[in-house]
């Protein structure tokens, strides 16, 4: 009996999933504070996947969290200073970073158990998938499926990584800090997820933007397939961005724009049916200049995002005196979001009349962008002679779906949270 390849759900092996989990780019050049924040978001995302029974993604992120603490963060040069500050004065920023590091690290034993349970379930699913393949006759459908699988590169485990209970237990013993007590994480309420209205087509209406982006309708299956990927073939789930949010942000930024000053905001949202939906535009406290925009009081900002139980899906900012592109400072800012979430994007608006391109949606390439920026220890504006560090990633049309993983869609509900 011929096999219908569409009815046979592919199941990745644990080797592939573990390789994906360890294929992030780590560097001590990135401050410990950012890595701790990243680890917190990784865990939050993993818990979200687990609650929705998305087992493979939950396993990948739990394993990444464990790997980050067991093999990397314990040797970060900032950790010694942070611990010393904590012992001297528990109210300093460095002390707060160390306290959060210890709180997150204390979750490792529980997360190892959870990852082991998920691994067992995923291994069973993979074995069942392989058995179904073996039972099927050699048909053209199966041959195409096998050929497609063989062409897909497998993520490689980093050298020295051995995911055995014994080794990780020893790691935990060495990393344990008996002077610190674990603190349970905050429980946040689930927000009701908005229904997505169906539309035939729309234009992004941006004041002064003559070349509006035409976007075709997007189907609403039970699960949105990840049809886009990075340069290294890692899947990118679709992000749905309300077109009205962009106009709203430009209105908010208009005063700064008239003064030639930048304005920034965070794009936050929910995961639903294997796709991300931007449901909040968060305007943080910020300091603006003609070429930069820096957030202030970030602890409060991330507390608000955690209380709302949101993913950080990217950021949006204006270039009142420049065209649409990512500066070297923007590249480093984008990197800090993209190492938290692969799909995170940077939206750049250039409302000035002299700029023909009014809107750009970008992500760092992977490779080479993320690795290049992660390993760069420079700050401020500086040249990056490397090519192809970032690309545009908005979806041009339904017919050209692989042009990008960001769909700008009219009529999607969203909320504004202005913290200024």
TrEMBL record:
InterPro entries: JAMM/MPN+_dom, MPN, STAMBP/STALP-like_MPN, USP8_dimer. GO terms for molecular function: cysteine-type endopeptidase inhibitor activity; K63-linked deubiquitinase activity; metal ion binding; metal-dependent deubiquitinase activity. Residues 239-370 form the MPN domain. Keywords: Hydrolase, Metal-binding, Metalloprotease, Protease, Protease inhibitor, Thiol protease inhibitor, Ubl conjugation pathway, Zinc. GO terms for cellular component: endosome; membrane. GO terms for biological process: protein K63-linked deubiquitination; proteolysis. It comes from the Eukaryota. Its cofactor is Zn(2+). PANTHER family: AMSH-LIKE PROTEASE, FI19924P1. Inhibitor of the DOA4 deubiquitinase involved in the regulation of protein degradation by the proteasome and maintenance of a normal level of free ubiquitin. Belongs to the RFU1 family. Belongs to the peptidase M67C family. This is Regulator of free ubiquitin chains 1. It comes from Eeniella nana.
């Amino acid at each position: 009996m011929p096999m219908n390849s569409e009815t046979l759900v592919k199941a990745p092996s644990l080797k592939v999933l573990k390789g994906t989990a360890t294929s992030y780019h780590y560097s001590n050049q990135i401050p410990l504070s950012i890595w701790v924040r990243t680890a917190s978001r990784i865990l939050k995302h993993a818990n979200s996947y687990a609650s929705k029974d998305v087992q493979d993604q939950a396993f990948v992120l739990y394993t990444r969290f464990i790997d980050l603490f067991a093999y990397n963060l314990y040797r970060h040069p900032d950790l010694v200073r942070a611990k010393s500050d904590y012992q001297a004065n528990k109210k300093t920023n460095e002390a707060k970073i160390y306290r959060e590091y210890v709180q997150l690290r204390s979750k490792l034993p529980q997360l190892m158990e959870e990852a082991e349970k998920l691994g067992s379930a995923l291994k069973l699913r993979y074995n069942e998938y392989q058995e179904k393949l073996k039972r099927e006759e050699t048909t053209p459908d199966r041959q195409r499926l096998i050929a497609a699988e063989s062409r897909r590169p497998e993520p490689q485990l980093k050298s020295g990584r051995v995911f055995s209970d014994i080794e990780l237990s020893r790691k935990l013993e060495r990393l344990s800090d008996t002077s610190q007590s674990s603190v349970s994480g905050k429980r946040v309420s689930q927000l009701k997820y908005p229904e997505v209205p169906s539309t035939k087509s729309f234009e992004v209406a941006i004041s002064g933007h003559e070349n509006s982006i035409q976007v075709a309708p997007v189907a609403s299956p039970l699960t949105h397939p990840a049809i886009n990927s990075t340069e290294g073939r890692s899947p990118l789930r679709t992000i749905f961005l309300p077109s009205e949010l962009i106009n709203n942000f430009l209105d908010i930024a208009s005063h700064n724009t008239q003064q030639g000053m930048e304005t920034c905001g965070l794009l936050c949202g929910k995961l639903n049916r294997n796709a991300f939906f931007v449901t909040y535009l968060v305007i943080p406290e910020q300091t603006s200049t003609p070429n930069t925009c820096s957030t202030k009081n970030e602890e409060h900002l991330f507390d608000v995002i955690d209380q709302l139980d949101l993913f950080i899906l990217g950021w949006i900012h204006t270039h009142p005196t420049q065209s649409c592109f990512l500066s070297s400072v923007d590249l480093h800012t984008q990197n800090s979001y993209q190492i938290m979430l692969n799909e995170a994007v940077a939206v750049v608006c250039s409302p000035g009349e002299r700029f023909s391109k009014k809107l750009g949606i970008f992500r760092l390439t992977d490779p080479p962008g993320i690795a290049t920026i992660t390993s760069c220890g420079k700050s401020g504006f500086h040249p990056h002679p490397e090519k192809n560090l970032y690309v545009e990633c908005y979806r041009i049309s339904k017919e050209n779906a692989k042009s990008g993983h960001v769909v700008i869609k009219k009529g999607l509900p969203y909320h504004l949270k202005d913290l200024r």
